[in-house]
Amino acid sequence: MRTGQKLVLQALEKEQKRLTLKAQKAAQLSEDFINAYSKISEVRRKANEILQSGEFEKRIKEFDELANQEKVAINLTQKDANKVFDADIKAKSELDEFSSELSFLTVRYNRGGI
After folding, report:
1. How many domains does the chain have?
2. How many Cβ atoms sit within 10 Å of the Cβ of residue 103?
3. What is the pLDDT of residue 109?
4. What is the DSSP letter of 110?
5. pTM of the model
6. What is the Cα–Cα distance from 96 to 89, expressed in whole angstroms?
7. Contacts of 33 (CB under 8 A, 6+ apart)
8. Domain range spanning residue 13?
């Protein structure tokens, strides 16, 4: 494999890492979106337990953290489901196509082609 080919492969591998991170973030957003209502329910149950225990003053930081988690989950529920899932599918497709091409080029370069 020539130096130029090595440089091309290194650049393509760097792009593959970027696309992998993008796909992971999109997948995580989809997962969080799916679980948002469950998260809201769980957070409200925990907050209610704090209020019922009468230890609100002692556990104010925990209560604030629950409020922040609820806010994040509510914001997720307001996103457009189609856009969230489309972005996930698009990111995975881009990564799959790119990885396939990179694999093809790697094999070809290693065999002395091009």
Report:
1. 1
2. 11
3. 85
4. H
5. 0.81
6. 10
7. 76, 77, 79, 81, 84
8. 3-110
